[in-house]
Design a protein that fits this description.
158 residues; 0% strand; single chain; mainly alpha
């Protein structure tokens, strides 16, 4: 109780304001801005945040120090969520990884078959034949077969 009453003294007004800001940050759950999250979410940034929290704990009111530790933890956690979108994204594979896995499965599952070999041989033979489109088009003459006096079917009448 003595720590709480000393926090409200005139000379500790800065610590009181900082305590109020820490409580607001913890309760309201504000998202960390991206520019700050990029700085905090590095190993050096995390160490710096922890060192600042420990310095506050050792030099100021114990209540403010404990609040500083909680705020440091929340800042590191929220910075991670802001950049990575949460922890679940670490476990979801990307599309390129999924495609690599599928192609590896298909290579082991489906060996080179006789059908593929025969189709490969057929395409080689067809490539050796020289077809000229002009000769084929000019020699083609359509012929209408005998209709045996049948009339045209009118499909569109009701």
């Amino acid at each position: 109780m003595k720590e709480l009453s000393s926090l409200f003294k005139k000379e500790n007004m800065g610590q009181l304001i900082l305590s109020i800001l820490f409580v607001i940050y913890l309760i309201m759950g504000y998202n960390t801005p991206m520019s700050l999250a990029e700085l905090v979410d590095t190993p050096v940034g995390k160490i710096a945040v922890i060192i600042v929290a420990l310095c506050i704990l050792s030099t100021s009111n114990p209540i403010l120090g404990i609040l500083a530790l909680f705020v440091a933890y929340e800042l590191i956690r929220r910075s991670n969520i802001a950049l990575r979108g949460g922890d679940f994204k670490n476990y979801i594979p990307s599309e390129s990884k999924k495609n690599d896995q599928y192609s590896a499965f298909n290579q082991n599952e489906f060996p080179y078959t006789l059908e593929q070999e025969m189709v490969g041989k057929m395409t080689i033979q067809n490539n050796s034949i020289n077809l000229s489109l002009n000769e084929n088009v000019s020699s083609f003459k359509p012929i209408l077969d005998n209709t045996h006096n049948a009339s045209m079917l009118n499909v569109y009448n009701n």
